[in-house]
Predict the 3D structure of the following.
Amino acid sequence: MKTVIQRVSRASVTVDGVVVGSIERGLLILVGVGPADTDVQAKWLAERIAVMRIFPDEDDKFNRSLLDMNGGALVVSQFTLYADATGGRRPSFFKSAPPQLAEPLIQRFVGFLREAGVQRIETGQFGARMQVELVNDGPVTILLDREP
């Protein structure tokens, strides 16, 4: 699994003109699933993200986690994280998991975040054309993956 984690002041996902998920201060988490990914990768990533110290303390040092801040998480499926753009002019997505594997694993990832203590979790809509808006705070953007 691959994630792109962005510390945000706010973020939202809109589908067909309707906001389906939004958070204030917290993390926007884009999640891509590979064909060999399992609960092992999903749980490790969720637990790691929940406690990753990427929020500033009073000295402006990265000493607080999402849990410490009681921040929200907006989880958005993003199969394009597995894009292969090394050949031709159009990226290939054959390295991403099929929807019947990816969708339930992303749902379990959300459950693992909840088990890790994240109280406010919103999601995008799997498979939909989504518009994602965010205010990246910092900016802070971290790539984190866990291969099988």
